[in-house]
């Protein structure tokens, strides 16, 4: 099986790219077409990367009778955050409530403790960071999108005898009902899992940060109509990009956009 790096080395599209265009076509153009250097990296990306690596370590190495020691996982998360902040030339934009690495690490470790306490180890772990590449075929015309949809599922596990894709997230707050119903990432995961031979559902496992971290575990129902909409959206975005659509979508997101200065916001 090809690695995610192999798949990303070829022309492709991704859920993140589609979301970037839907949120702001100008941001999409600067990131994916002009390859502009961002002024900073959001802290959420650093935390998310370190979080995924730590939970992957937990899932791949732990067994019910012998789990990876919590102290080891805490050290793994701490090191990942520090390396993520200090190991790149692009500076990290800290958030108002967390102005230094120590505060970020402290908050993240509290989140990890709550996750380990609240989220039981799955019965079977089939894989973590499972790469996929799927061809998107237009449901009406039969046209194949030139660039496949590429990405990686956070984890494929088995619970109560049924395969489940876990979407592992961190965030300031829980997902709203609209996010649970309409976010396109779980739709893409469901399609990818089926392409790999898993008739799997998708569960959101979102760990929130704050004074009292919490875990939101939600089954995400996705149907064929959702998959059709995702495919049609991917084709529409591809046509818009080809036509040169890259207008800025001004709003509150500009305040934390890594490309705001270059964009003129």
Task: Please write out the topology.
Elements: H1 4-8, H2 15-23, H3 25-33, E1 41-42, H4 43-61, H5 70-86, E2 92-93, H6 101-118, E3 124-134, E4 149-159, E5 162-171, H7 177-182, H8 184-195, E6 201-208, E7 214-220, H9 224-242, H10 260-263
Parallel strand pairs: 1-2, 5-6
Antiparallel strand pairs: 3-4, 4-5, 6-7
Helix pairs in contact: 2-3, 4-5, 5-6
The averaged pLDDT comes out at 94
Instruction: Give the helix proportion (percent range).
Output: 40-55%
Provide the structure class.
alpha/beta
Q: What's the Cα radius of gyration?
A: 19 Å
Strand content: 15-25%
* Spatial strand arrangement across the major sheet: 3-4-5-6-7
Counted by DSSP, the helix tally is 10
Total strands: the figure is 7
Task: Using the 3D structure, state the CATH architecture.
Answer: Alpha-Beta Complex
CATH topology: Lambda Exonuclease, Chain A
Question: In terms of per-residue confidence, which ranges show pLDDT below 50 for 5 or more consecutive residues?
Answer: none
* CATH class type: Alpha Beta
Number of domains: 1
Name the shape in a single word: globular
Major sheet characteristics: 5 strands, mixed
The separation of the N and C termini measures 43 Å
Helix/strand order, N-terminal first: HHHEHHEHEEEHHEEHH
């Amino acid at each position: 099986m090809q690695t995610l790096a192999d798949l990303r080395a070829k022309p492709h599209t991704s859920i993140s790219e589609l979301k970037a265009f839907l949120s702001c076509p100008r941001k999409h153009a600067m990131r994916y077409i002009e390859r502009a250097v961002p002024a900073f990296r959001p802290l959420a990306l650093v935390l998310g990367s370190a979080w995924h690596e730590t939970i992957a370590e937990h899932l791949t190495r732990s067994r019910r009778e012998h789990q990876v020691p919590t102290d080891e996982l805490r050290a793994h998360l701490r090191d990942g955050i520090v390396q993520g902040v200090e190991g790149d030339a692009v500076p990290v934009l800290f958030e108002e409530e967390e102005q230094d690495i120590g505060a970020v690490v402290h908050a993240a470790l509290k989140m990890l403790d709550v996750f380990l306490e609240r989220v039981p180890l799955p019965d079977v772990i089939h894989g973590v960071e499972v790469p996929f590449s799927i061809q998107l075929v237009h449901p009406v015309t039969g046209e194949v999108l030139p660039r496949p949809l590429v990405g990686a599922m956070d984890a494929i596990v088995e619970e109560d005898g049924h395969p489940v894709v876990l979407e592992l997230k961190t965030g300031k707050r829980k997902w709203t009902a609209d996010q649970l119903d309409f976010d396109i990432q779980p739709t893409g995961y469901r399609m990818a899992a089926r392409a790999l031979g898993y008739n799997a559902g998708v569960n959101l496992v979102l760990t929130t940060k704050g004074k009292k971290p919490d875990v939101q575990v939600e089954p995400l129902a996705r149907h064929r109509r959702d998959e059709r909409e995702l495919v049609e959206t991917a084709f529409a975005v591809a046509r818009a990009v080809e036509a040169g659509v890259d207008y800025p979508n001004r709003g509150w997101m500009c305040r934390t956009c890594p490309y705001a200065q270059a964009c003129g916001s």
